[in-house]
Amino acid sequence: MEFIDLLISAGLWATVLRIATPLIFGTLGELICERAGVLNLGIEGIMTMGAMVGWMAVFQGADLWTGLAVAAAAGLLVGLLHGLLTVPLGLSQHVTGLGITMLATSLSYFAYRLLLPETTTPPSITPFAPLGDGWWQAVPWLGEVIGQQTAPTLLALALVALVAWVLYRTPAGLAVRMVGENPAAADAQGISVTGVRLAAVMAGSALMAVGGAFLTLSAFNAFFFNMMGGRGWICIALVVFASWRPGKALLGALLFAFFDAVQTRLQQMTGGALPYQLFLMLPYLLSILALVVMSRRAAYPQALMVPFRKGER
Amino acid sequence: MRLERRAETPPLLSVAVPVLALLAAFIIGTLLIMISGASVPAAYAAMAEGAFGSRFALTETLTRAAPLMLTGLAAAVAFRARLWNIGAEGQLYGGALAAVWIGTAPLGIPDTLLLPAVILAGAVAGGLLLLGPAVLKTRFGVDEVVTTLLLNFIVLLFVSMMIEGPMKDPMAMGWPQSETLPMAAELPRLIPRTRLHAGLIMALVAAGLIYVMMTRTVLGFEMRAVGASPRAARFAGMGVGRVMLLVALISGGLAGLAGVSEVAGRTGYLTLDMSPGYGTGGVVVAMLAQLHPLGVVLGALMVASIFVGADAMSRAVGVPTYIADVLVAVSLLCMLTAMLFARYRLRRG
Amino acid sequence: ADKIKVASVYTVPIEQQWVSRIHIALDAAAKRGDIDYEWSESVSNADYERVMREYAEKGVDMVVGEAFAVEQAARRVARDYPETAFLMGSSFKPQAPNFSVFDNYIQEPAYLTGMIAGGMTKSNVIGVVGGFPIPEVNRLMNAFMAGALEVNPDVKFMVSFIGSWFDPPKAKEAAFAMIERKADVLYAERFGVSDAAKERGVLAIGNVIDTQAQYPDTVVASALWHMEPTIDAAIAAVKAKSFKAEDYGHYSNMKPGGASLAPYGTFEDKIPAELKAKVEAKKAAILDGSFTVEVNDAEPKPTM
Amino acid sequence: MLRLSGITKRFGALTANDAIDLDLRRGEILALLGENGAGKTTLMSILFGHYVADEGRIEVFGDPLPAGSPKAAIAAGLGMVHQHFTLAENLSVLDNVTIGTEPLWKPGRDRAGARRRIAELGQRFGLAVDPDARVGALSVGERQKVEILKALYRDARILILDEPTAVLTPQESERLFVTLRAMVADGLSIIFISHKLPEVMAVSDRVAVLRAGRMIDQRPAAGLDRATLAELMVGRKVSRPRHTAANPGAPALVFDRVSATGAGGKPKLHEVSLTVHAGEIVGIAGVSGNGQSLLADLAAGMARVEAGRLTILDHETRRPDPAAMVRLGVGRIPEDRHAEGLVGDMNVWENVIAERRNRPEFSRWGFLRRATARAHAAELVRDFEVRCPSVDATVRQLSGGNMQKLILGRALALHPGLILANQPTRGLDIGAVAYVHQRLLEARDGGAAILLISEDLDEILALSDRVAVIHAGHLTPARPRAEVTVSGLGLLMAGAGDPDAGDPHPTTPEAAHAS
Ligand SMILES: Nc1ncnc2c1ncn2[C@@H]1O[C@H](COP(=O)(O)OP(=O)(O)OP(=O)(O)O)[C@@H](O)[C@H]1O
Ligand SMILES: Nc1ncnc2c1ncn2[C@@H]1O[C@H](COP(=O)(O)OP(=O)(O)OP(=O)(O)O)[C@@H](O)[C@H]1O
Ligand SMILES: [Mg+2]
Ligand SMILES: [Mg+2]
């Protein structure tokens, strides 16, 4: 009974949205990269860098939206590096991605420590405030859920629709999908495979970085080492779960966040009868289960992880 | 401009490539050191000193290289067969957990057999951990990049559960760590008063065996064929599923051995922070070696010496310690790029 | 005497509450001119022994650090360098001749903050959010809970571990979940809990460091750890060449000034006088030795 | 309309195109001929901007064409249908056709307009396809239509078709030629590459012949005969193998009312019956997608029998597997040499022993005997005239013809009792085709039973002793070669004679399944 109440409580769903937001950004970013044929295992590092850079900008006096923009710009840059290595040079996407994660993460820590050498309590900023009251308050349950969110969460939701529209309804989106399916075909129609892939990786990386920045500018107010805690890797799984579709990506992020939110509450409700690790495992176990159920029909972008070099076969 | 595959790599180039790559990494490292305001010559002197400058430094580098060799081999074997195992970290912990369990449980294993039993247990546990994703891949087409990534989290939580629960050391004052392996289950030290242990020998032997397996045996032949073209391999009468499962067992087993090496060679007991990312480190090493089993040995030595050297350097000249990871990552990316240009040339048109 | 060389080896960044207390104490000693101070942060388990040895090789007089999870290795290093003093955070006994131990035995102020929490809660529900259930965390939580029960036997506890030391957003969500279930005082073992409390207008109890300046309307009281007595005693011993294997744990008690209840600050007037009096009395009892806070390292269990 | 002058292209030491001059006139179909590797595709790739020529210039409608830009080529009115399709299988026909036709930064696509235009083009040139179909669901012939639509959609005035008929059935080819003629009538010009000489003579106005990168000759198609053309291409007389009467022996391969379902449940075989005897070649003609791949898979051990009995070299089997087939001594030539036949990234010698790696000659105690394997491969390479740098070269470096010879050699080396030859000469030039045919006939005369599956009717008629036709999973009885005609086969392939197709002259199922 108590569990049913929990499931329909606005508090739970507000939590779900908050937990999901960085995942939505990250998953959309990864989805764009993979749709263009580039696996981006740099995501964990790019999110870390976004978290650090965005926060640092605000700490140095920029306003919050500028902070997000700075994070996006940092994402673009790291994306450019990942893109240059994997697209024109065609290096292995697995190892480049892991290398980028290593580089972006350690560089973020390095820069943080250089800029703030003597901090014994993490300095903080004033983060995005929850939306609070507004006309939405009139809607009974939903109003409460929305009131607890911050503006970047709404941005994430809007981006889902935007990314879907771009992918399916614009020539640029078609080009992205085509270079991910058959780069030679795109090339033969005068589309620059290198250009489109680079742009996609950069745009995707920018979104990932914004997802990271959400953690330091909205979910919390300071930057921490190791703060990403594997959220980037979750996004990789969510993209597969979503069969590379933005709508399903949203669904996957919400589902994962739901497991996470329920996990916290179950842990508190069951009163320590079970090891807490079991609850923490729950989101991961259920993700694998969901993948098994979904994967049969998953249609991979055919050229995912296949470098395209003009004139080579 | 486009890249064109070279018919063959000029010998001079294959020598020049690593040198040039390290030079590029060196330049970037110099910039970072200058930004942090330290003396560049002093920094590089400290780095060389820290990696190779003394018996202590050398043994430290080798100690760090041993687990990297094993996870590197794990990645190389799997990647050859196009099984994208990103889960070596989890397999490493799984192997370590099994090793500790066999080594400390009251099973009545005679002392002489204890170390072999511990090693075997670790390898089997690591192998079994990769078997799941491999079965999901061959049976249901579930992407193994994702499952192995997610399994890392699950295994770590499971290890945490075990060392806070049934396997917790009652003598550890409540600190979550496993019981300590008995002496008989420990890998011997190679040089007294250093940390260098027989895990290194284990890694070198494994590299040799994997090399022989890949190039000289029917199984290695099948693994390469399945990796290069599963359809053609099946047409030639190879059991693709069977080969994949064997690859999984071997690859996971090697990662499990890395766990054994750490727990039986270095720490003696298992904690949650035992591995500083040896799993992903292995992928890096394998790619530097271009998936060649003997190259993995060199790759691991390179990564270990850069890290150990740069870490010592950061202390010696007062640069944030994170520079060690930055330098490893930069060297990796430079090296990969340089290796590409050994195989390709830039050409107009 | 001359300056001595001290090096510390931390497994986490210096922002981490625990480590920051050691760092501050050593830094102060360095600023006073007592020591030359070097430090390494975020040293992984695999590297810890090497870093210790590096410093010992370099000839520092004292190595300070946390031996948790690298206990055997740290002791091995100490054996190999008998001329060097080692002062390590550890749950174990000292090891002759040169390996001394300390720990954050601040259960006393934690007990006091528990009393305040018990007195301040209206819903009689208190939430406790922690990283991992390790002894260093458990003993403070247990003391806190015992203190709360002393003034308010009706109080119930929720306990959550987030399985991470550095995930403030996650800690925040765990705290939110507790607030939804009527908790109105939260024990902030991790960063993020006070933020949740602030956002929802409930109260928080600080731990190890004082964060009231950042959360003036939220953080009622904090149990503070001061490493200065421990560090200064060790430095003095090294200088006097009298350093030996000792347990410095008691330097973290209230009496020598190793722990304290943070000033009420903004809550000076919001805490009922009667409650303050109870706390004062208990503090006095602790200081004069007539009351001992039990050190209980077992994992705390929720009571609702 | 188009003028190429002095085009030279070198790949390393190899000169793929050597000072080539070529003109194309309005409304003509030019056939570009040449052996495998003569440089045809290279020349067309230069024209279309995939490659940049080392020397020479290109003019289209009198204007010079910028080098190395497919975009510029399209803008100049060139359209190309590549030797290997360039379509994205997961995307729709509409997506595949419109890709690159709108500026990338346009917010939104004109999908309704595109549908209209595709329908209109389809009408005009007989290229109707459903714009919303997923390309992966289309047959090869339909995909070809999409490829041509792509060019026409961009207002191509000059269309280049690289081996467009290599994968088409005679009917589909015929339809393609109708389309091509309609286009020429519309004022387009066409360059058309093919190895199939009869169709070259039938549709082209002019032929240009390349040999080893050089333009050997250009002349009107009228009055050319096959032998002359072949000689021009190869530089010597090509003698086609003589087909002599067979001397059939015991049954080697027996399908007895075999039913099976292919991957994805799609192609199905319905109670197929067929017997192939030692010493004879039975040809299976049929339009691709009617179940011949599944039939081949059964004989190759790659698919499983659902009902009925399959007997291979006296062993009845329900679940054949490739390893068992190799043990039984079945020589197999798969349909797709790149995907199935060979492992491109492995060495020649490794590919040679891939099927027989467990035989004692090649391995002992699980260890490969590399020396014997290499020696065996070297011998095979010599015997089958495979041109490769060494047996340690990776197979990817071999040309298609040489790959096919390698597979042929591997299949024939052990004097198998049964040979499965699935599309054994697809994409090969006439010299190579003649060689493969010769070897197959020799094997037959040596007593092997051969099941030949081909979409090329000429090949079927040139080799088979008996011919059966497959349509929609039903197999007609095999009739002696002398009793069948091209037009008769064509009708059967289109479904006449199929009990499910409302055949005007129904054959009883019993008759249809008797072998
Ligand atoms: N990108 C390339 N790099 C190196 N050599 C090449 C390349 N492309 C083609 N060649 C070589 O150029 C020659 C001409 O190849 P091309 O593909 O033009 O032949 P083709 O006439 O189209 O043959 P086919 O009839 O088999 O299609 C071949 O011998 C081939 O080895
Ligand atoms: N892009 C390329 N890079 C390197 N070598 C190439 C390339 N393209 C072709 N080749 C070389 O060209 C030769 C084969 O070319 P060719 O086009 O003649 O084959 P093909 O007979 O047309 O094969 P298929 O029948 O499969 O189309 C091989 O030696 C191959 O190494
Ligand atoms: Mg060809
Ligand atoms: Mg060609």
Automatic annotation (TrEMBL), chain A:
<dbReference type="Pfam" id="PF02653">
    <property type="entry name" value="BPD_transp_2"/>
</dbReference>
<dbReference type="GO" id="GO:0022857">
    <property type="term" value="F:transmembrane transporter activity"/>
</dbReference>
<feature type="transmembrane region" description="Helical">
    <location>
        <begin position="198"/>
        <end position="217"/>
    </location>
</feature>
<dbReference type="InterPro" id="IPR001851">
    <property type="entry name" value="ABC_transp_permease"/>
</dbReference>
<feature type="transmembrane region" description="Helical">
    <location>
        <begin position="37"/>
        <end position="58"/>
    </location>
</feature>
<feature type="transmembrane region" description="Helical">
    <location>
        <begin position="278"/>
        <end position="295"/>
    </location>
</feature>
<feature type="transmembrane region" description="Helical">
    <location>
        <begin position="6"/>
        <end position="25"/>
    </location>
</feature>
<keyword id="KW-1133">Transmembrane helix</keyword>
<keyword id="KW-0812">Transmembrane</keyword>
<dbReference type="GO" id="GO:0005886">
    <property type="term" value="C:plasma membrane"/>
</dbReference>
<feature type="transmembrane region" description="Helical">
    <location>
        <begin position="64"/>
        <end position="85"/>
    </location>
</feature>
<protein>
    <submittedName>
        <fullName>Inner-membrane translocator</fullName>
    </submittedName>
</protein>
<feature type="transmembrane region" description="Helical">
    <location>
        <begin position="150"/>
        <end position="168"/>
    </location>
</feature>
<keyword id="KW-0472">Membrane</keyword>
<keyword id="KW-1003">Cell membrane</keyword>
TrEMBL record, chain B:
<keyword id="KW-1003">Cell membrane</keyword>
<dbReference type="Pfam" id="PF02653">
    <property type="entry name" value="BPD_transp_2"/>
</dbReference>
<dbReference type="GO" id="GO:0005886">
    <property type="term" value="C:plasma membrane"/>
</dbReference>
<dbReference type="GO" id="GO:0022857">
    <property type="term" value="F:transmembrane transporter activity"/>
</dbReference>
<feature type="transmembrane region" description="Helical">
    <location>
        <begin position="322"/>
        <end position="342"/>
    </location>
</feature>
<feature type="transmembrane region" description="Helical">
    <location>
        <begin position="278"/>
        <end position="310"/>
    </location>
</feature>
<keyword id="KW-0472">Membrane</keyword>
<feature type="transmembrane region" description="Helical">
    <location>
        <begin position="196"/>
        <end position="214"/>
    </location>
</feature>
<feature type="transmembrane region" description="Helical">
    <location>
        <begin position="12"/>
        <end position="45"/>
    </location>
</feature>
<dbReference type="InterPro" id="IPR001851">
    <property type="entry name" value="ABC_transp_permease"/>
</dbReference>
<keyword id="KW-0812">Transmembrane</keyword>
<feature type="transmembrane region" description="Helical">
    <location>
        <begin position="65"/>
        <end position="83"/>
    </location>
</feature>
<feature type="transmembrane region" description="Helical">
    <location>
        <begin position="145"/>
        <end position="163"/>
    </location>
</feature>
<keyword id="KW-1133">Transmembrane helix</keyword>
<feature type="transmembrane region" description="Helical">
    <location>
        <begin position="115"/>
        <end position="136"/>
    </location>
</feature>
UniProtKB/TrEMBL annotation, chain D:
<keyword id="KW-0677">Repeat</keyword>
<keyword id="KW-0547">Nucleotide-binding</keyword>
<dbReference type="InterPro" id="IPR003593">
    <property type="entry name" value="AAA+_ATPase"/>
</dbReference>
<keyword id="KW-0762">Sugar transport</keyword>
<dbReference type="InterPro" id="IPR027417">
    <property type="entry name" value="P-loop_NTPase"/>
</dbReference>
<dbReference type="InterPro" id="IPR050107">
    <property type="entry name" value="ABC_carbohydrate_import_ATPase"/>
</dbReference>
<feature type="domain" description="ABC transporter">
    <location>
        <begin position="2"/>
        <end position="237"/>
    </location>
</feature>
<dbReference type="InterPro" id="IPR017871">
    <property type="entry name" value="ABC_transporter-like_CS"/>
</dbReference>
<keyword id="KW-1003">Cell membrane</keyword>
<feature type="region of interest" description="Disordered">
    <location>
        <begin position="495"/>
        <end position="515"/>
    </location>
</feature>
<keyword id="KW-0472">Membrane</keyword>
<keyword id="KW-0067">ATP-binding</keyword>
<feature type="domain" description="ABC transporter">
    <location>
        <begin position="253"/>
        <end position="497"/>
    </location>
</feature>
<dbReference type="Pfam" id="PF00005">
    <property type="entry name" value="ABC_tran"/>
</dbReference>
<keyword id="KW-1278">Translocase</keyword>
